[in-house]
Task: structure prediction
Amino acid sequence: MKRLDSFSVRELSKIIYQSNVMPSCHSGSFLKLSEHLIKQFHSGADLEKIGRIVSSELVSSYGLDISKNESEELSEDIYDWYHN
Result:
């Protein structure tokens, strides 16, 4: 379980960046999403909810259209990071 602090937010942002969902950005581009996800984990979000958040935020906030498979893989990486 991770704390909601700037280190964890930056670390998660880097994980999302390294997934290459938006190659033209930098790791800091996902700070807001990362903070939101950590807050959701603290509220008890499960993998399914994290997946929905990731999918919807990548579309609405970043204008990205990623496949369901990519979204699921990224969500699992995020979930594993938080719980390990």
The mean pLDDT is 95.
